[in-house]
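User: My collaborator sent over this chain with a note saying "see what the structure looks like." That's all I know about it. Can you take a look?
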Amino acid sequence: MTEVELFKAVDRWAAKESERHGTTPGDAKRRILGEEIVKAIRFPLMTEKEFISVVPHCDILTTTEIIDVVKHYNGVLTTPLQFLSARRVNPNTAIYHYHRFKDLPLRAPTDSSWW
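Assistant: Without extra context I'll predict from the sequence alone. Here is the result:
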């Protein structure tokens, strides 16, 4: 799942929760999501086109936050961006090495053994 897809899903959920509570989505989305969730979305991993076409009209980020991300894309941001920019690591794709036979040499055999 890309970061823009994640954001769209979070936005849809917040809008539905807002409707369920009988509030206007624009006023309540950020409050419903909470700062921890908003800060966990990695806006810098979106392309500038994805960000501009999806994020500003959702009323989740403040105007200042939107401007800071746009400045980040254009290389003119003078302060650190408050959103994470490191990619997520999928634990299902991590590579683990297990050695069942620790006493065997880790080299190809010269004979036609089961190796």
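A starting point for your reply to your collaborator: The CA atoms of residues 72 and 81 lie 7 Å apart.
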